[in-house]
């Protein structure tokens, strides 16, 4: 008979807490684990938020542990759920949505929150922190509506926020109280070099400036400084610091100071309750960098699994970061005093700077800017208290008889036990063994296998050096061109393999095509699911679990865990009866907001999950697919039906196109627009397919994008009849479906494939065009409205929307 396992609850679904769980699982800890996270996402890489902000990554790209990971490890995950109180006597937790769950052991990992300056006006609209995905979305939305932004705080978070907002097209000024940027990590020289580099990238700075008030109506309009001067801004990011999130501990009478007070084994003042991460105060210190939090997690994991471990005695703090493309590093003492010696090298041409600080000839600190090749050895020398020698000086400063270029590609002096990736506790031996045992040849493969460079990415240069060291100078080390780190196969190779080998399921694809990770990841599973459905729309059974959460739920999840419902309005046209139903449903189900979209539809924002099927049923309208990699909208002007300039029936054609191609899966979201004349009121120039009517027929444009990476559409061809237009649109759509990479917008696809190639495939080659039309018609014959499917499927409806969580 199997003994009942102890119940372990993790409060907080962030990097430190989940990394601790990963270590517990790796060590064989036997617990029934439940995780509560306030955000509506699985565990993601908070360090990568700036990339989401600037648009080079999405939330799916920065997920560290997918929903499938929790399921595979039998972890119960409650997202969008905040633990409000712990009954430490009864060993029960209480949540904001009415749950109460018992525990045997608990880890609090609630992280930190933005410090909002307590100045007049701090609560106005347009004032945000920068700590999570919701903050990113607010910034992206603000950039679409307002020209000027101010970031208060010149630390790491402030600079990342500023760079992201500049990338989004805003005029950005960083206001910093101190005279130097990142004064807690850099000396004045490195800070000055960083400021100059960021100014070249378009960021403005006001240094030594204190903000005392925010003025405006409901929304912020300007900042007031201590000297009486002002600065206009319609959006303000508070990045003046962070503070440990200790609310649940204080509410539960667990001892706190600035953070949750813990001993050297991360135990709190209450039996069976531990704490880890940014919420913790250990020996008077609170840590805000990743590496110390993972050090805590590894010790806690061993302790909680009953394995002997050294106590946590604090961390030697080092900072290795890439800020707007600039590498910086500091460790130990970075601002010298009069009793210390300094070795420096500065190159303004190459924009590099190196400073090493000595105390009694012992290395106690360092700062690097631009070139951080020596970061790993310097960190070790500082940690070990290494003495400076002539030989070491020559190695670090590139002088004497040392072959400096050879030094940079060699890690043979590094001990096997030395930690390369402080974020995830990966040693040199872990990486070397993985390369030998699994035949790894790229940094991406090492990241997938060991976790090294998975979090902040700062150790990537050292990982690459180890790769060269193990495989030899003659090896060709390329960057993986695979779909993801699970495979070296490209999109085209995967699709070809599916065709040639007759593969019909995701598991078959991963097994036959020799995936390195047997279960895949959040990047490749949705992609394979799409490719299989695109290649065989009749036989393939869509795997819902491999779709993103919005597509599984057929609605857009919001930051508070509710959903947005967007019914279909063909060509942006609706009826009074439909409008009345929308209004009635909105009132009945307490919809938080009703908003017009840019695609001439209506958002019903704030529907709770359990109400979704009832809302869909009572609306009695088709799904607008606002959540899917599918046709979103066909925007139209009023055209010849009403406009005195209109030459074509744009509303009628838009509705016909939308009815024809709705519900079809695409590589990415897809938008269309139809104009009745060249005045372009429906903005065809920024759509995936834009159509402009004229006296002689229609002109077709493709590859437009009005998003973060804006692109004007290319003119493809002109047609005379409505039927020719519909046929050409079908051929273009199918050619994109068959040749596009998953998540690749048509703006990128047109540039990759080339307009002449597309023209030949869908316009010149009539036979090929007809075959494309036949294949798109076959796919269209299989589609159904997903809202009606759920309404008519009691079992699915119950499982997805009414299953009680305990």
TrEMBL record:
Report if keyword Ribonucleoprotein is assigned: no
* Ranges where the BFD-like [2Fe-2S]-binding domain occurs: 419-467, 483-532
The residues covered by the Nitrite/Sulfite reductase ferredoxin-like domain are 558-620
The superkingdom of the source organism is Bacteria
CDD domains in UniProt: NirB_Fer2_BFD-like_1, NirB_Fer2_BFD-like_2
Its UniProt pathway annotation is: Nitrogen metabolism; nitrate reduction (assimilation)
Keywords of this protein's UniProt record, alphabetized? 2Fe-2S, 4Fe-4S, FAD, Flavoprotein, Heme, Iron, Iron-sulfur, Metal-binding, Nitrate assimilation, Oxidoreductase
Q: List each copy of the Nitrite/sulphite reductase 4Fe-4S domain by range.
A: 628-766
- The yes or no answer to whether the keyword tRNA processing is present is no
Q: Which family does it belong to?
A: Belongs to the nitrite and sulfite reductase 4Fe-4S domain family.
Q: What is this protein called?
A: Nitrite reductase large subunit NirB
């Amino acid at each position: 008979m199997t003994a009942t396992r102890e119940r372990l609850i993790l409060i907080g679904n962030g990097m430190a807490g989940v990394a601790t769980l990963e270590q517990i699982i790796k060590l064989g800890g036997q617990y029934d684990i439940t995780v509560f996270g306030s955000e509506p996402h699985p565990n993601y890489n908070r360090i990568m938020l700036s990339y989401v902000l600037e648009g080079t990554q999405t939330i799916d790209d920065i997920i560290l542990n997918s929903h499938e990971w929790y399921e595979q490890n039998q972890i119960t995950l409650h997202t969008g759920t905040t633990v409000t109180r712990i009954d430490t006597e009864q060993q029960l937790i209480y949540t904001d949505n009415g749950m109460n769950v018992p525990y045997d052991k608990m880890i609090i990992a609630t992280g930190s929150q933005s410090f909002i300056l307590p100045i007049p006006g701090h609560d106005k609209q347009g004032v945000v922190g920068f700590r999570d995905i919701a903050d990113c979305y607010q910034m992206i939305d603000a950039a679409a509506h307002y020209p000027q932004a101010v970031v208060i705080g010149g630390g790491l978070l402030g600079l990342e926020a500023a760079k992201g907002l500049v990338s989004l097209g805003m005029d950005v000024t960083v206001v910093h109280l101190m005279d130097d940027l990142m004064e807690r990590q850099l000396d004045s020289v490195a800070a000055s070099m960083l400021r100059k580099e960021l100014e070249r990238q378009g960021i403005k700075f006001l240094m030594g400036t204190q903000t005392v008030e925010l003025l405006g109506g409901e929304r912020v309009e300007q900042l007031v400084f201590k000297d009486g001067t002002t600065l206009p801004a319609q959006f303000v990011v508070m990045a003046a610091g962070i503070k440990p999130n200790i609310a649940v501990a204080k509410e539960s009478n667990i001892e706190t100071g600035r953070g949750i007070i813990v001993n050297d084994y991360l135990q709190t003042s209450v039996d069976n309750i531990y704490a880890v991460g940014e919420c913790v105060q250990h020996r008077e210190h609170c840590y805000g960098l990743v590496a110390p939090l993972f050090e805590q997690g590894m010790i806690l994991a061993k302790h909680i699994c009953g394995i002997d471990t050294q106590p946590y005695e604090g961390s030697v703090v080092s900072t290795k970061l890439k800020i707007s493309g600039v590498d910086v590093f500091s460790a130990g003492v970075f601002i010298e005093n009069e009793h210390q010696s300094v070795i420096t090298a500065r190159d303004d041409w190459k924009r590099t700077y190196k400073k090493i600080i000595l105390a009694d000839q012992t290395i106690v600190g360092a700062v690097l800017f631009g070139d951080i090749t020596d970061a790993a050895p310097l960190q070790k020398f500082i940690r070990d208290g290494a003495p400076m020698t002539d030989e070491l000086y020559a190695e670090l400063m590139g002088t004497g008889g040392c072959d400096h270029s050879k030094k940079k590609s060699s890690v043979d002096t590094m001990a096997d036990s030395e930690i390369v990736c402080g974020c995830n506790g990966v040693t040199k031996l872990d990486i070397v063994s993985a390369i030998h045992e699994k035949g790894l040849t790229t940094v991406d493969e090492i990241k997938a296998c060991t976790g090294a460079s998975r979090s902040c990415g700062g150790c990537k240069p050292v990982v690459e050096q180890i790769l060269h060291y193990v495989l030899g100078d003659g090896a060709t080390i390329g960057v993986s061109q695979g779909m993801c780190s699970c495979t070296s196969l490209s999109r085209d190779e995967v699709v070809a393999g599916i065709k040639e080998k007759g593969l019909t399921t995701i598991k078959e694809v991963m097994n036959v095509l020799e995936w390195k990770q047997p279960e895949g990841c959040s990047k490749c599973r949705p992609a394979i699911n799409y490719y299989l459905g695109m290649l065989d729309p009749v036989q393939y059974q869509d795997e819902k679990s491999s779709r993103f959460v919005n597509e599984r739920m057929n609605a857009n999840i919001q930051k508070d865990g509710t959903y947005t419902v967007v019914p279909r309005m063909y060509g942006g046209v609706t009826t009074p009866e439909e409008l009345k139903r929308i209004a009635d449903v909105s009132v009945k189900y307490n919809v938080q907001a009703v908003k017009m979209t840019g695609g001439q539809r209506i958002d019903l924002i704030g529907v709770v999950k359990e109400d979704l099927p009832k809302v869909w049923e009572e609306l009695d309208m088709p799904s607008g697919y606002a959540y899917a990699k599918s046709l979103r909208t066909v925007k139209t002007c009023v055209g010849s039906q009403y406009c005195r300039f209109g030459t074509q029936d744009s509303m009628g054609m838009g509705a016909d196109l939308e009815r024809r191609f709705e519900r079809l899966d695409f590589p990415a979201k897809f938008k269309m627009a139809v104009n009745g004349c060249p005045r372009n009121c429906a903005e065809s120039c920024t759509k995936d397919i834009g159509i402009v009517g004229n006296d002689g027929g229609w002109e077709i444009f493709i590859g437009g994008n009005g998003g973060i990476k804006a692109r004007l559409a290319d003119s493809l061809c002109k047609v005379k009849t409505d039927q020719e237009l519909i046929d050409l649109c079908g051929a273009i759509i199918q050619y994109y479906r068959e040749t596009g990479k998953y998540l690749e917008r048509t703006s990128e696809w047109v540039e990759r494939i080339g307009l002449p190639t597309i023209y030949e495939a869908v316009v010149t080659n009539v036979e090929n065009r007809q075959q494309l039309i036949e294949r798109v018609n076959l796919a269209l014959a299989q589609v159904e409205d997903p809202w009606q499917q759920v309404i008519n499927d009691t079992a699915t409806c119950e499982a997805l929307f009414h299953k009680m969580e305990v």
